[in-house]
């Protein structure tokens, strides 16, 4: 079985400050990790993914995430937060055992960027 | 269209009624996924289609739920004898293939309310 934990229901950060949204995972086999963002009344949007290779993954809108195998973590980061980054962020994992993208999502973390 | 389209955007139905939710994937995408997102939760996998066939329906909660994709494009999620617990946002996603190298694009979802 695969699972994702997002330990923070909400993260508040001042505009211009760095932000981190935490994610830890559990999966048998090699993990495939994703971050999605959900704006109000809009669908999930893909931000970035880790499949293999460099542990630091760069994605859309200046976001990046670091894969840490020993800590089973995949925290989302951005050097300088924007008010427009305020949204709901979901971490997701797949073990790809079936050969396709069957992902398990976390419950989401609400990011609030304060002007 | 340019993205994944889901109709209707909102559906209110009475307990015990039958509903159909439609998903128009991105043209040419062979992989199609249905997820269900309950209030305050992350999306939960329901079913995966590769072409016309349901390759994995392990997430369907019971036999009241059924999905089809007869021509390998549009998919319909069907729910019989709806219950109040079925109230959720139903999300559809498609990708060019089912592999990890292709991005999954989500629709805006259908918000189903069973009263």
Structural account:
The complex is a heterodimer of chains A (115) and B (115). Chain A contains no helices and 12 strands. Chain A is mainly β and 115 residues long. In chain A, strand 8 (64-68) and strand 9 form a beta hairpin. The model of chain A has no long low-confidence stretch (mean pLDDT 92). Chain B is mainly β. Chain B is built from no helices and 11 strands. The radius of gyration of chain B is 13 Å and the shape is globular. The A-B interface holds A 4, 32, 36, 41-46, 49, 51, 90, 92, 94, 96, 98-108 and B 3-4, 31, 33, 35, 40-45, 48, 50, 55-56, 91, 93, 95, 98-109.
In short:
The complex is a heterodimer of chains A (115) and B (115). Chain A has strands spanning 3-5, 10-14, 19-21, 24-26, 32-38, 44-50, 56-58, 64-68, 73-78, 87-94, 104-105, 109-114.
Entry keywords:
heterodimer; A: 115 residues; mainly beta; 6-stranded mixed sheet; globular; B: 115 residues; 7-stranded mixed sheet
Helix-strand layout with pairing:
The complex is a heterodimer of chains A (115) and B (115).
Chain A: E1 3-5, E2 10-14, E3 19-21, E4 24-26, E5 32-38, E6 44-50, E7 56-58, E8 64-68, E9 73-78, E10 87-94, E11 104-105, E12 109-114
Chain B: E1 5-7, E2 10-13, E3 19-24, E4 31-37, E5 44-50, E6 53-56, E7 65-68, E8 75-79, E9 88-95, E10 105-106, E11 110-114
Parallel strand pairs in B: 2-11
Antiparallel strand pairs in B: 1-3, 3-8, 4-5, 4-9, 5-6, 7-8, 9-10, 9-11
Structural shape of chain A: globular
Radius of gyration of chain B: 13 Å
Biggest sheet overview of chain B: 7 strands, mixed
Distance between the termini of chain B: 33 Å
What kind of oligomer do you see? heterodimer
Low-confidence stretches of chain B: none
- Rg on CA atoms of chain A, Å: 14 Å
What would the average pLDDT of chain A be, to the nearest integer? 92
Helix/strand structural class of chain B: mainly beta
**Percent range for β-strand residues of chain B:** over 45%
> How would a crystallographer describe the biggest sheet of chain A?
6 strands, mixed
What average pLDDT do the residues of chain B reach? 94
What portion of the residues of chain A fall into strands of 2 or more residues? over 45%
The tally of helices of chain B reads: 0
């Amino acid at each position: 079985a695969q699972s994702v934990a997002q330990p923070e229901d909400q993260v508040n950060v001042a505009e211009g400050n760095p932000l981190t949204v935490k994610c830890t995972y559990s999966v048998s086999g090699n993990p495939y990790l994703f971050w999605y963002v959900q704006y109000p009344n809009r669908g999930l949007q893909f931000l970035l993914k880790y499949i293999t290779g460099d542990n630091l993954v760069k994605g859309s809108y200046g976001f990046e995430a670091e894969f840490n195998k020993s800590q089973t973590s995949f925290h989302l980061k951005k050097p300088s937060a924007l008010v427009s980054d305020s949204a709901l962020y979901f971490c997701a994992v797949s073990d790809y055992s079936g050969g396709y993208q069957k992902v398990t999502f976390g419950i989401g973390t609400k990011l609030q960027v304060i002007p | 269209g340019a993205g994944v389209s889901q109709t209707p955007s909102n559906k209110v139905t009475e307990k015990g009624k039958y509903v159909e939710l439609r998903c128009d994937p991105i043209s040419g995408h062979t992989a199609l996924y249905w997820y269900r997102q309950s209030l305050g939760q992350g999306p939960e996998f329901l079913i995966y289609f590769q072409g016309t066939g349901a390759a994995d329906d392990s997430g369907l909660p019971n036999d009241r739920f059924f999905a089809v994709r007869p021509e390998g494009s549009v998919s319909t999620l069907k729910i019989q004898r709806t219950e109040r617990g079925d109230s959720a946002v139903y999300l559809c996603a498609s990708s060019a293939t089912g592999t990890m190298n292709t991005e999954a694009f989500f629709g805006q979802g259908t918000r189903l309310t069973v009263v």
